[in-house]
Amino acid sequence: MHILLARGGLNVMTLLGTFPSGIAQGMIWGIMALGVYITFRMLDIADLTVDGSFTTGGAVAVMLITSGTNCWIALAAASVAGLLAGLTTGILHTRLGIPAILSGILTQFALYSINLAIMGFSANKAVSVDRYVLAVSSRYINAALITGVIIAVALVSALYWYFGTEHGSAMRATGNNPDMSKALGININSMKVIGLALSNALVAFSGGLMAQYQGFADINMGRGAIVIGLAAVIVGEVFGEMLLKKRMNFYGRLLSVVSGGIIYYLVVCVALWLKINSNMLKLMTAIIVVIFLAVPYLQSVSHASFKKAGKNSLKEVR
Amino acid sequence: MCAMLELKNVNKTFNAGTINEKHVLKDLNLTMEEGDFVTVIGGNGAGKSTMLNAIAGVWPVDSGAILVDGNNITGLPDFKRAPYIGRVFQDPMMGTAPDLQIGENLALAARRGKPRSLRWGFTKKEAENYRESLKILGLGLEDRITQKVGLLSGGQRQAVTLLMASYQNPKLLLLDEHTAALDPKTAKKVLDITKQIVADQHLTALMVTHNMKDAIATGNRLIMMYEGRIIFEAAKEDKKKLTVDDLMRKFSEVAGEEFSNDQALLTR
Ligand SMILES: Nc1ncnc2c1ncn2[C@@H]1O[C@H](COP(=O)(O)OP(=O)(O)OP(=O)(O)O)[C@@H](O)[C@H]1O
Ligand SMILES: [Mg+2]
User: Which of B11, B22, B51, B208 is the pocket-test mutation for ligand 1 (most atoms within 8 Å of CB)?
Assistant: First the structure.
């Protein structure tokens, strides 16, 4: 309460008032994080394509909707565009032998031009909820929340099913042990390409949702999406693990990832409410990701630390 | 009736055209009949692993032909040879996926070389079969089917890999020093399981080992490799009569002065 009083202008009610919209937006990031989860956790690839394909999704959706296309068909088209982006990264990586990270960077770089071209070479394009029927909009937060939950549950269920099938299991094996996978007859290159395509389709789909929600597509809307996605994945996993403990199964894990996006965005809301300069958000996000990636590592190291062992040994040699 | 495995004048050179050029397999020929269990011995760098890698299709050979059960597989990459071949690697970590459950690993192996469809990847009915087959190992793993493989010891993982490699009735089982990374007691256990599985399923197997006693006591044929060629071979009764000293003598005949260097590498 100290800070609140000291700062005077801060009102808890204002903060709570931002939460519904924060949850809706967080859910859209969470859906994107499902895409990141596929590459990062299943294929063991940090795919930087997403910064570009998120914008691609937004650009395609907005351009199609403003030219009279149904918003759901526009979202489907956005997903296909993202799929093609992932396909490109996959082919650069598996057919041309370019390291996965660099392949993603190259596609993302190229997408900047392509995204501009999609938007008729302007840096942003508006799509007004007054003129078009949109899947989600910040103007109708309750409806957006319901739609968001339905979409998230549908996608989580679809992924849960897919990764339980023979094909999905083979993809999990590919990321976990490529040598074994090859010996078992799995074409690991095609698995990687399919995984990257699937992942970026999801990312572009959420980009299309985000553009509708905020009412415009912007050439920079995907900048840092990969970091936000990673934040959602690991924050979600940590909280999911804490909440569900032993009962954590794969379905719970996927739901955690979506929740991770929501938690991430609520933290952003709090930061904005604390009047932290919004330009500092990226620094903050990066720090969150570093902390969550580092803590498990440091914990494991502290259990087996040379310093500690050295100190303990003094008892014996003294 | 054709042979189960035929290597015809197989050649493989690494780093061709550089100063590191190394002609590892030299006009290698080998024929294995159905049910043959061949042990392979030879010093370090003789080309044993390279021969197995050539058969498994890790990379293409430079010349020669590789036939499995009459099928010419020379032009196929490794994952397309999987329907014919089961493999166990020297490194116990390489044959199983650590973050997947024991059952999931077995389910993946039960579909070796088959198209991966959108049918369920691990059914309840299968779990029962896997439990039965894990019992063969005698390691109590049948009660741990939902545990992650990463929790198992090296020996247990190697035993699971062996089981996986034997699923789907492979035409050929390739074992590359698969007990070398294990302690003597576990190594013996895994070798016993190997013999049992090969016998029970009438598999055709090729096993590399540095242990001469094992090489003599296991299987029906023995081959010795030296500098990319098979320099000695014994089968059936001849093989049974072999002693470790015979093999040492044979080895020194061809290897000459290098013998003293390499002798240490072949354990009795
Ligand atoms: N992928 C590769 N690239 C370059 N050289 C290789 C490669 N694989 C094997 N070699 C070389 O081929 C030779 C034979 O190696 P190989 O692994 O077949 O020997 P080995 O008989 O299995 O020996 P060991 O008993 O030590 O396992 C060695 O000189 C090795 O350096
Ligand atoms: Mg070897």
Answer: B22
Where do we find the tokens 């492979």?
A: B170
Do A10 and A3 touch, CB atoms closer than 8 A? Answer: yes
Q: What is the pTM of this model?
A: 0.90
**Rounded Cα gap, residues A313 and B222, in angstroms:** 52
| Contact indicator for B244, B251 with CB cutoff of 8 Å | no
Separation CA A120–CA A114 (nearest Å): 10
Tokens linked to A62 = 């907005």
> Exposed, middle or buried, B158 (CB in 10 Å: 0-12/13-18/19+)?
buried
Which residue from B220, B183, B176, B194 is spatially nearest to B41, judged by alpha carbons?
B176
Res B264 pLDDT > 90: no
Q: Among positive and negative, which fits the CA dihedral A259, A265, A266, A268?
A: positive
Q: Which residue has the tokens 């990701």?
A: A289
Is residue A136 a contact partner of residue A130, using CB atoms and an 8 Å limit?
Answer: no
pLDDT of residue A295: 79
Q: Is the pLDDT of residue A273 over 50?
A: yes
CA separation, residue A203 to residues A52, A56, A77, A169, A274 (Å): 10, 9, 13, 22, 30
- Classified as helix, coil or strand, B202 is coil
Q: What is the ipTM of this complex?
A: 0.91
Chain A: residue whose CA lies nearest to B79: A185
Which residue's structure tokens are 């068909």?
A: A73
A298/A271 Cα distance (integer angstroms)? 26
Q: Which of B82, B2, B203, B166 is nearest to A179 (CA)?
A: B82
> Do residues A137 and A82 lie in contact, with contact meaning Cβ atoms separated by under 8 Å?
no
- Does ligand 1 have an atom closer than 6 angstroms to the CB of B14? yes
Q: Could you tell me whether strands B172-176 and B85-88 are parallel, antiparallel, or unpaired per DSSP bridges?
A: parallel
Residue closest to B96 by CA, chosen among B165, B184, B196, B185: B165
Is the Cβ–Cβ distance between B4 and B84 less than 8 Å? no
Tens-digit pLDDT profile for residues A224-243: 999 999 999 988 988 898 88
Strand duo B205-208 + B172-176: pairing: parallel
Q: Which amino acid is at B102?
A: I
Contacts of A177 in chain B (CB under 8 A): 94, 96-98
Q: What is the per-residue DSSP string for A226-291? A: HHHHHHHHHHHHHHHHHHHGGG--HHHHHHHHHHHHHHHHHHHHHHHHTT--GGGHHHHHHHHHHH
